[in-house]
Amino acid sequence: MALSCSSLCSRLSLIRLCGLRTNRITNGLYSPYVSCQSRLPLCRHYSSSNVRRGIGRYVASRLQSVNSKYEGFLKRRFPRFFQLYHTFMEGFKLLFKDAKDVRRIKTKMFSEGVQFQDLSYREMEKLRQFRRDLFKALPLVVISIPPFANYLVFVLMYFFPRQLLIPHFWTPRQQVEFRAVYHSLRARHHWPVLKGLEYASRQVKDSQLQSRLKDLCAKVQSGENPKVSEILAVRSLFSGPPLGIKRMSVDQMRHISPLLFLTPRLPGFLIGRRLNSHALELLQLDRALSRLGPHQLSDSEVRQACYVRGLNSNSLGINQCHEWLSQWLQVSSSLKASEVSLLLHSIVFLSANYPHGPSRR
Q1: What one-character DSSP code corresponds to residue 348?
Q2: pLDDT tens, 16-38?
Q3: pLDDT (tens digit, 9 = 90+) per residue, 69-119?
Q4: Whole domain around residue 324: which residue ranges?
Q5: Which one in 45, 162, 330, 345 has a CA-CA gap of 20 to 30 Å to 186?
Q6: Same domain, 304 and 244
């Protein structure tokens, strides 16, 4: 009652395709099946792995063909909707790529024991930006959980892209427009920060330091760009009272928070913690950038670095961005961790009038 080799191989392939358990075959029959399958081309041709790969390639090609036709239809009949659709699809690709990069960085930190301050500049910036983007996208994800809520979410994203979407899903035109809006919102706090410094200067007992701080504020208020040396001349006031990161008034912290795109609508102790955390992170980013060298950055990376530090870089030339970033790094590289409050105030000192005032180092 022996079965032919080809018949056995054919039946074995059918069993595997139907999802039946092959371990029911007796040991005496299963061994010849395997040896026969490895010898005859016919058995290899009908192997389950080849069938699965063939089905997978067919399904993938059909889906790609349908998607291409759908995109062509949208592009011809609904060009504005196609632009929105294309932006969303590209945004998801970028977000997925960022998620893979963040996972790789986190794995590196965990497996090799690398600390955040030891990462490269681009790795630090990737982690920082992804965390902010994820925090912003989280409410939208929560809203979309109930059944059929995704339709409401799509409408909200269409009408409120700046408030609800992260930059991955903005068009190039929206990138420029929304950044200008956000910068104008934080620029509103330049004057209150300077007024807070003037008020705090009254508590300074050293008359020379008090005079230097008042002159610095007056220069910025008059539309001039202060020198780096003038900023560093008052650094000792920002390591303790009244302007240290943990010693300044709550009102001053509430005015500084929007400069970093942080909400000021929190209890004072929470605002202080968040400011200290973000200021130290910014200082570490600056040190990593100094190690790398600003000249190693692409133009888009330079503009992004300037924007994060308080400058509306989209309205400036790339040489102006390089000049401003150089001044910022001169200040940052001279500061200790206990003086990060001055780094936050430098957002106002260096960017409030740049480049309109006379630029002097």
Answers
A1: H
A2: 333 434 343 334 433 444 444 44
A3: 766 766 677 677 777 777 778 888 888 999 999 999 999 999 999 999 999
A4: 187-351
A5: 330
A6: yes
